Automatic annotation (TrEMBL):
Gene3D superfamilies: Regulator of K+ conductance, C-terminal domain. The chain crosses the membrane at residues 28-45, 52-70, 90-110, 130-154, 174-194, 384-401, 433-458, 464-484, 491-508, 514-532, 552-572. Residues 196-280, 281-365 form the RCK C-terminal domain. It comes from Alkalimonas cellulosilytica. The keyword Membrane applies. It is found in: Membrane. InterPro entries: Cit_transptr-like_dom, DASS-Related_Transporters, RCK_C, RCK_C_sf. It comes from the Bacteria. The lineage of its organism: Bacteria, Pseudomonadati, Pseudomonadota, Gammaproteobacteria, Alkalimonas. Keywords: Membrane, Repeat, Transmembrane, Transmembrane helix, Transport. It holds the Pfam family TrkA_C. This is SLC13 family permease. It is a multi-pass membrane protein.
C-alpha cells in the first residue's frame, strides 16, 4: 500500500466521520476533502474545477431552478382536490399516486413542501396519518425517471465521468414502478398504524417557551407554588435560568427573583395564560408588539441550521420574534435565545408588518403558517408553465434536444415572463448541493485513480466469494442503504459509487447493475427522519416520534429492498 493510498483512506475516514458525527453541513466536508486533495497534490487544479462543469450536475442545477416555476403552478392544488375521502387507505393511495407522479419529474422536496399544507387541513384524517406516506411516496416516485431525484442525476454524472454512456431517461422506470407498487401497498396498510394526533391530544408534540420575570414583577419574592405556576394546565415549568445557574427540576418552594427566565414545555394554546401573570413577559420581549402568531418550519438548506437565535439576529433579519420552538417530541432546554436550531424545527413567530416579505424566506423556511410560501400562478400561466416544461422533457426523451441545452432556454423564458425573478434564483440557488456533487465527483475519481476503490472492492469481493456477482450486488446495495440512513442520500451515492464500479471491473461483469444498485440503495431511506430531506420535512409537521418512522419504515425498507434486489439482475443483467 502506497503512501498516497494511506492518505486517501485517511481522508475518506475523516469525511465519513465528519458526515456522521459533525453538525457542519455535508458541503463543508466534501468541499474541504476536495480542497485538501488538491493542496497535497493528489489532484490538479484544472481537473478539480472541471468536475463542477459535469453535464449531469449542470442539468441538476437547472432542473432545481426551473422547478421554482413548477412550484408556483396550480398543478399541486388541482391534484390535492383528489385527497378528500373518509377511507384512509384510498386517501393514502390517491396521495401516493399524485406525489409519486409529481416527484418523477419535479424535485421531490418541492412536491412535499407544497402538498404538506393541504394535508394538514384534511377534513377527516390527522396530518400524522398522511405526512410520512407523503414523504415515502415522494422518495419512491423519484426513482421512476432519471430526473426524479438528485441522486439519479448524481450517479449519472459518475457514470459519465467513468467514460460510460449516459443513463437514459426511463432506464429506472420499470424497476421503479414495481418498487413503487410494492411500497404503495405497504403505505396503504401502514398508515393505519401511524399515530392519530388529531384524536389524542396527549400525543401532541410540546412547544418550548421562555418567559422572563420583570424587575418590578409582583411574582418576585413568592414561590412557584404561591404564584400558581405549578397549576397551569397544558404547560409545565421545566427549569429556571438564573444568571449562570440552571435550576432543574423546579421545586414548588423555589422563590422567584428579578430577571429569572422561566422555561415552559407544553401546548402552544396555553401560552396566552403566561401573559396574564403581572410582570411575566415572553422571551424575546419584543414579541409583545404584535398580536399575530405565525408558524414556520426551518428548511434543510436554511442558514439558521446549526446556529442560535442570538447568532443569526433573528429579530433584525425577519422583523419577527420567536416565542416558541418545537422539535418533534424532543424535550428542549437551555434557554430560547441559546437554543441551537435544527432542520425541521417548528418556530412560532410574532411577526412585524413586513413579514413574510423578507429576503431568503423561501430558502430558510419550508412553509409559513402551513401554507406554501410561493403564491400560485393564474390558471392560464400555470398551463403555459406546465406545457413548456412538458415539451422540454419530450424533446429530451426523443433525444432531439438534451436537457442541458433546453433548460437554460426555458429558464430564460420564465425570467423574461416574470414567472420567476432573478432574486428568487439567487435565494434558492442550491449552492450546497452544487458543492457536494462537484466535490464528490472529484473524490470518486481520486478513489479510482489511486487504487483505493479497487482495494476496498477486492476485499468486499473476497467477503462475498462463492456468491458471484449477485452477492457483490447485494453487498453494494446494503452498504449504500446503511450510509444513506446515517448521512445524506447524495453523500451515500458518492461514497459507494467508486467501490461499486471497481467491484464490477474486478468481477469482469457489466457495471450497469452496480450503478443501479447504488442509485436505488441511496433512495432506501425509510427508517429515520435524518437520511432524506423529505423525511425531515414532515418530522415536526406531523408531530412524529422516531418510533413512528421505524413502525412503517422497517416494513417499507424490507419490501423495497427485497423487490429491488430480486428484480435488479433481470432488468439490468450482469
Amino acid at each position: 500500500m502506497t503512501l498516497q493510498q494511506l492518505g486517501v483512506i485517511g481522508l475518506l475516514l475523516a469525511l465519513i466521520a465528519g458526515l456522521i458525527f459533525s453538525k457542519r453541513s455535508p458541503a463543508f466536508w466534501f468541499g474541504g476533502a476536495l480542497l485538501l486533495s488538491y493542496l497535497v497534490g493528489w489532484q490538479p487544479l484544472e481537473k478539480a474545477l472541471t468536475n463542477f462543469s459535469n453535464p449531469s450536475l449542470i442539468t441538476l442545477m437547472l432542473l432545481l431552478l426551473v422547478s421554482l416555476a413548477i412550484e408556483k403552478s396550480q398543478l399541486v392544488s388541482w391534484l390535492s382536490r383528489s385527497f378528500s375521502g373518509q377511507n384512509l387507505s384510498l386517501v393514502v393511495a390517491r396521495l401516493s399516486l399524485a406525489s409519486g407522479f409529481l416527484s418523477s419529474f419535479v424535485n421531490n422536496t418541492a412536491v412535499v413542501s407544497t402538498l404538506m399544507s393541504s394535508l394538514r387541513q384534511h377534513p377527516h384524517f390527522a396530518a400524522s396519518r398522511l405526512l410520512i406516506p407523503l414523504s415515502y411516496s415522494a422518495i419512491l416516485g423519484g426513482m421512476l425517471t432519471l430526473i426524479g431525484t438528485s441522486t439519479n442525476l448524481i450517479v449519472n454524472g459518475f457514470v459519465e465521468e467513468a467514460g460510460h454512456a449516459s443513463l437514459g431517461f426511463f432506464d429506472f422506470t420499470l424497476l421503479g414502478l414495481i418498487a413503487f407498487g410494492a411500497g404503495l401497498l405497504v403505505l396503504m396498510v401502514g398508515a393505519h398504524f401511524l399515530p392519530d394526533t388529531g384524536k389524542d391530544e396527549q400525543t401532541a408534540a410540546p412547544y418550548y417557551v421562555s418567559a422572563r420575570v420583570a424587575d418590578d414583577s409582583q411574582l418576585i419574592g413568592k414561590s412557584v407554588s404561591d404564584n400558581g405556576l405549578r397549576e397551569l394546565q397544558q404547560l409545565f415549568l421545566a427549569e429556571i435560568q438564573r444568571g449562570e445557574q440552571l435550576i432543574c427540576p423546579v421545586k414548588p418552594e423555589t422563590v422567584l427573583e428579578p430577571g429569572d427566565e422561566l422555561h415552559f414545555v407544553g401546548d402552544l394554546q396555553a401560552v396566552s395564560k403566561l401573559q396574564s401573570f403581572p410582570g411575566l413577559t415572553l422571551v424575546p420581549g419584543e414579541a409583545e408588539h404584535s398580536g399575530e402568531l405565525m408558524e414556520a418550519a426551518i428548511s434543510y438548506s436554511s442558514k439558521l441550521v446549526g446556529k442560535t437565535l442570538k447568532q443569526v439576529r433573528f429579530r433584525e433579519q425577519y422583523n419577527a420574534a420567536v416565542i416558541a420552538v418545537r422539535r418533534g417530541h424532543e424535550r428542549l432546554n437551555g434557554g430560547l435565545g441559546n437554543l441551537v436550531l435544527h432542520a425541521g424545527d417548528v418556530l412560532i413567530l410574532a411577526t412585524g408588518k413586513d413579514f413574510p416579505g423578507q429576503n431568503e424566506l423561501g430558502q430558510d423556511f419550508i412553509y409559513v403558517n402551513g401554507l406554501a410560501i410561493s403564491q400560485p400562478l393564474p390558471a392560464k400561466r400555470s398551463h403555459w408553465v406546465l406545457g413548456s416544461f412538458a415539451l422540454t422533457l419530450v424533446l429530451s426523451i426523443l433525444e432531439l434536444v438534451p436537457l442541458v441545452k433546453s433548460l437554460p432556454v426555458l429558464l430564460v423564458l420564465y425570467l423574461v415572463s416574470s414567472v420567476i425573478s432573478v432574486n428568487e434564483l439567487k435565494r434558492r440557488f442550491p449552492l450546497e448541493l452544487f458543492v457536494i456533487v462537484g466535490s464528490a465527483i472529484g473524490l470518486a475519481q481520486l478513489m479510482i485513480q489511486s487504487g483505493v476503490a479497487g482495494m476496498i472492492a477486492g476485499g468486499l469481493n473476497q467477503l462475498v466469494a462463492g456468491y458471484g456477482p449477485y452477492g457483490a450486488l447485494i453487498a453494494i446495495f446494503v452498504a449504500t442503504w446503511l450510509f444513506t440512513e446515517v448521512v445524506t442520500n447524495n453523500a451515500a451515492a458518492a461514497l459507494t459509487f467508486p467501490i461499486a464500479y471497481a467491484m464490477a471491473l474486478d468481477l469482469g461483469t457489466s457495471p450497469l447493475p452496480f450503478f443501479m444498485a447504488v442509485a436505488f440503495g441511496a433512495s432506501a431511506s425509510f427508517i429515520s427522519p435524518f437520511g432524506y430531506q423529505t423525511n425531515l420535512m414532515v418530522y415536526s409537521a406531523g408531530n412524529y416520534q422516531l418510533k413512528d418512522y421505524a413502525r412503517i419504515g422497517i416494513p417499507m425498507a424490507l419490501v423495497y429492498s427485497t423487490v429491488v434486489l430480486l428484480c435488479l439482475p433481470y432488468f439490468y443483467p450482469f
